[in-house]
Amino acid sequence: MVSSPAATQSLARALAAHLRPGDVVAVEGGLGSGKTTFVRGLATALLGTDPVSSPTFTFRHRYGGTEGSPALEHVDLYRIDDPAELAELGLEEAFATDAVTAIEWPERAPELVGRPRWRVVVDGSGEEPRAITIERLD
């Protein structure tokens, strides 16, 4: 159990030590559970900074990608209601081999996400503590 956003980010930073370019991290959880907070922790560890904002309305943000650190692709599929919408968005570009890709709401487009290398599940919302499960899938 984690009780604060700082603890959530700490877990993400620990996972980041195991990530390599080309890895896909599926981040699951309900509204307000802390998925974007988790991605912020990944960004801090991978990029040395936290430029992360939720891409709910833009679907995708790309951060970093300087020499010595991989880029971070952050995809939010919350607004996807029909998988047919994906063809117009060009989100397949987010799965670059030079980047770590973190995807919120991956269950909304399993055909796009495929089989991620990592699965993170954040349970809880509001002021309650979170249970975070991190699973390597390969």
Radius of gyration, in Å, reads 14 Å
In the CATH scheme, what's the topology name?
Rossmann fold
List unreliable stretches of 5+ residues: none
Total domain units: 1
Q: How far is the first residue's CA from the last residue's CA? A: 25 Å
Strand elements, count: 6
* CATH class group: Alpha Beta
Secondary structure category: alpha/beta
Using the alpha-carbon principal axes, give the shape: globular
The strand line-up of the biggest sheet is 2-3-4-1-5-6
The topology string of helices and strands comes to HEHEEHEHEE
The portion of residues assigned to helices is: 10-25%
- Please summarize the sheet with the most strands: 6 strands, mixed
CATH level-4 homologous superfamily:
P-loop containing nucleotide triphosphate hydrolases
Quick rundown:
With 138 residues, the chain is an alpha/beta fold. The chain has helices spanning 5-16, 35-47, 86-89, 110-113, and strands at 24-29, 60-64, 71-76, 99-104, 118-123, 131-136. The protein has a six-stranded mixed sheet, with helices on one face.
Description:
With 138 residues, this protein is of the alpha/beta class. It has a single domain (5-136), classed as Rossmann fold (3-Layer(aba) Sandwich). It contains 4 helices and 6 strands. It has helices at residues 5-16, 35-47, 86-89, 110-113, and strands spanning 24-29, 60-64, 71-76, 99-104, 118-123, 131-136. A 6-stranded mixed beta sheet has the order 2-3-4-1-5-6, covered by helices on one side. Strand 5 and strand 6 form a beta hairpin. Helix 1 crosses helix 2. The protein is globular, with a radius of gyration of 14 Å. The mean pLDDT is 88.
